[in-house]
Design brief:
alpha/beta, nine-stranded mixed sheet, six-stranded mixed sheet, 14 helices, 493 residues, 29% helix
Length: 493
């Protein structure tokens, strides 16, 4: 069998003013996808492995990924779309195509266009209207009617943090293959639930997500059920389609798909009030007060604070200064800490460049923050010592700088990358276990941090990934919706 593969993966935060462009993406083209693009945290990796095991002829097109950020440049998206479609046309010209399996996010927004997924799926359908097509999605995908009309089967991640990307891709491929081998069509049914959920209230190991995901897994044990998925949408995209969707894909059994999707949707709505933060959580001022007490008086180490309102992996800018301002307002407590406070970090290309120009060991004046987020950030002047410099870190080739201001050490990046990367701090020669307080621009802690945290605090700080959804001035989401409108009613299908 001859199967076309490819993908686009970006989570677009419409509250973030940054336009995500060509330099923010890693793009693999053609055979590069089968070589350089085989990373375990890509759903495309699972797709390719499953198709390879089945001895399929894989036709790679384009695979593009970027760290969550603001909406994607229309110029870049249209060039990427054009390239993918041209590779598909070439594949069609070379011989019959049996299927298509794509790795998409589901919440990629394009400047001036909106939903990238429905646009690219519609364009592919114009070329191959009858060929079976399945899609692997992020758990935070936003589902539209046009997406449902253009693809046969969908499957989303079942873990948050997302550690089953590879497995999700493999399932997308396997349900395509089974449909083709048995010559039975795939049918997908959806049930929408009028809810917005911050990611930090929906960790898959905690209730109610644990039980709801178990319902999906139990449903998948039925012989005709290929996939049952909870697609939560992306709350920091102010979009009329934003809400929870339950998607069930079966082998030619729409009645079963309808029944399962309805059952899970009803249970999801019944448990709507159970979605809560699972760790200590406070506003910015109280978070620091609790952390300083734990470190100074109770000798707890390390205490982690999630700067959740400015989480780049939720598409925030990475330069809100809400927590930094509060730290600097408490410099007497800062100086009493038994170790420096570690802050990871800030996306600030200018400050990073200044450090690179000065060199390790230099004492310089820099400004940090407030370049992009001018509502929750401002330029903060700091006198720092440059401790460590790194060039071309990671797949996005970011420069890194580690600086010290008084009793605080700060990581700086020249590119908009995530601060939950387990290799970032070690690249700077830093072991977070050595610090009494670690502030990190994240929501829920990634495993590399949660496994060593003696105490974890989620700060509902201010930024473009503000966890207090009720405080966000939405203008486009469908209303009423829970919890923005707490009295929302749900007519269950």
């Amino acid at each position: 069998m001859r199967i076309i593969v490819g993908g686009m993966n970006h989570e677009s935060n419409t509250l973030n003013p940054i336009i995500t462009g060509k330099d923010d993406f890693v793009v693999f083209r053609g055979k590069e996808i089968l070589e350089k693009g085989m990373l375990p945290y890509y759903s495309s990796t699972g797709i390719i492995e499953a198709l390879s095991e089945a001895k399929c002829e894989i036709v790679p097109t384009v695979l593009a990924r970027a760290v969550p950020n603001g909406v994607v440049s229309d110029e870049f998206y249209y060039s990427l779309k054009s390239e993918m479609l041209e590779r598909i046309r070439s594949a069609v010209a070379e011989g019959p195509v049996d299927g298509i399996c794509l790795a998409l996010h589901g919440s990629m927004k394009v400047n001036g266009l909106g939903c990238a997924e429905e646009d690219i799926l519609s364009a592919i359908r114009e070329i191959l209207p009858e060929v079976r097509l399945t899609v692997a999605l992020d758990m935070h995908a936003t589902i539209t009617d046009k997406m449902l009309a253009c693809a046969d089967g969908f499957v989303g991640y079942k873990t948050a943090p997302h550690i089953d990307c590879r497995e999700t891709g493999a399932l997308a491929a396997s349900m395509l293959l089974r449909s083709l081998k048995e010559n039975r069509p795939l049918t997908t049914r959806s049930r929408s639930v009028p809810m917005l959920i911050a990611g930090e209230k929906s960790e898959s190991a905690a209730e109610p997500m644990k039980s709801l995901i178990n319902m999906c897994m139990e449903a998948e044990k039925e012989p005709v059920v290929m996939a049952a998925s909870l697609l939560l949408g992306f709350p920091w995209a102010d979009d009329e389609h934003e809400m929870v969707n339950i998607l069930v894909t079966t082998l030619d059994d729409p009645c079963t798909a309808d029944a399962i999707a309805t059952r899970i949707a009803k249970e999801f709505w019944r448990r709507r009030a159970d979605f809560k933060f699972r760790c200590e959580n406070y506003d910015t001022e109280e978070s620091l007060k609790v952390a300083f007490k734990a470190a100074i008086e109770d000798k707890i180490k390390p205490v982690f604070i999630s700067d959740s309102g400015d989480n780049p992996t939720a598409g925030s800018t990475g330069d809100s200064t809400d927590i930094l301002e509060q730290i600097l307002a408490n410099e007497q407590l800062l100086d009493r800490l038994p170790t420096p406070l570690l802050y990871s970090g800030f996306y600030d290309a200018q400050a990073t460049a200044d450090c690179l120009d000065a060199g390790e060991g230099s004492y310089i004046d820099i400004e940090v923050g407030g370049i992009w987020d001018k509502i929750n950030g401002k330029r903060i002047p700091l006198k720092v010592k440059v401790l460590k410099l790194v060039n071309d870190y990671g797949p996005f080739n970011s420069d890194l700088a580690l600086v010290q201001h008084r009793n605080m050490i700060i990581a700086l990046t020249s590119k908009h990358i995530g601060f939950g990367d387990e290799d970032l701090l070690p690249a700077l020669g830093v072991d977070p276990k050595d610090y009494c307080i670690v502030v990190v621009k994240l929501g829920y802690l990634e495993a590399c941090f949660s496994e060593i945290a003696a105490k974890a605090i989620l700060s509902t700080s201010k930024g473009c990934s503000n966890e207090v959804l009720e405080s966000i001035p939405f203008t486009r989401i469908h209303r009423p919706i829970y919890p923005i409108d707490p009295d929302t009613t749900y007519v269950q299908g």
